[in-house]
Amino acid sequence: MSVTPLRPRPVTNARTSVEVAAKLAQIFAKTAGDYDESAAFPHENIFRLHDAGLISLTASVEFGGAGAGLAEASEVIREIARGEPSTALILIMQYINLATLPKGRWPEHLARKVIGDAVENGALINAFRVEPELGTPLRGGLPATTARRTADGWSISGRKIYSTGAEGLTWAIVWARTDEAEPRVGGFLVPMGAPGLRIEKTWNPLGMRATGSHDVVLQDVWVPLDHAADVRPPSEWDTRGEGQAAWFGTLPGALYSGVAEAARDWLVGFLKERIPTNLGQPLATVPRVQQAVGEIEELIAINRRLILSAARDVDEGRPFTLSEAGLIKVVTTENAIAAVEKALKLTGNHGISRNNPLERHHRDVLCGRIHSPQEDVVRLSAGKLALGI
Prior knowledge:
The chain is built from eleven helices and eight strands. By secondary structure, it is an alpha+beta fold. It has three domains: 110 residues, Butyryl-Coa Dehydrogenase, subunit A, domain 1 (Orthogonal Bundle), CATH 1.10.540; 108 residues, Beta Barrel (Butyryl-CoA Dehydrogenase, subunit A, domain 2); 143 residues, Butyryl-CoA Dehydrogenase, subunit A, domain 3 (Up-down Bundle). The longest helix has 29 residues. The protein is globular. The chain starts with 13 loop residues before the first helix and ends with a helix. It holds the Pfam family Acyl-CoA_dh_2. Keywords: Flavoprotein, Oxidoreductase. InterPro entries: Acyl-CoA_DH_C, Acyl-CoA_Oxase/DH_mid-dom, Acyl-CoA_Oxase/DH_mid-dom_sf, AcylCo_DH-like_C, AcylCoA_DH/ox_N, AcylCoA_DH/ox_N_sf, AcylCoA_DH/oxidase_NM_dom_sf, Mito_Isobutyryl-CoADH. This is Acyl-CoA dehydrogenase.
């Protein structure tokens, strides 16, 4: 689909951005089933987000963005995910990069280029880190993707998998090692239209089907010298890069909480309308059902409070550890999954029918377990920290 960029309409404050996101989510929900079935990239949704001023929400005001913090971004992501969660995941990656690039080691002119492109044209960016052999770098190891130094730049070759948003991106941050005797590792800024870069459409998952997370293959892709945006010895890297851990720990929980809320909303409508012959009144009047819905509300309420509390701590500069970030991600995604599973138990065959959206919400919410950091890594790290090991 060809989309003509629009000048974004600036979002003036947090309340406005969340309200705009909620209205867009209602629009996105109408075509969410179509995107799920086709696994097509949601170009139209991204177009609308840019038109509404939400694509560059977390870019700093200095760079032309709205300067939103993590709390506001979390609420926007939750609302968008209620409508179409694949779009929300693409937006998560955008928000994290736009918010954190200027605070890292990137040359300022590169950060301005990428962020200005997002503000003016709705350009998307994401980091490509995962590889067939390596898996996620969070579990350790050097990437096979290699940047070879040339006379006037870098020549990059390798394969990246699970490259969220690949079809719709303008920029990629490619995680690669140098070919030096003592390799350095880090992010190289690569235009998605660069010669030698191609997308192989391999993404065919159970849920979150419209994220366009295909394989990206690079064969002697040239970039200028300064596009080695942040390259350093492996020992100097933490597990996520400065500033990003809290965002990666919080925003996935917001997304999957939004999916759980969408499932809850459908369930409530079903329970009010469904009148079994032997009961003679809506299922919503049955105390056992009311209690079960209350259990779902409990999980959703805990998630919302936990996510907003953590996000505000980050925005206000209070201490926030890597361990806490991982635990919040695990707890909130597991709560969201439990909420949707409880909804399925209440609806029986109706819930798993492809004529209803609940089964889609279930498939989507299960993907929360896949995102890094994963449960075993998070809990092992937290346990070691508590034990002083």
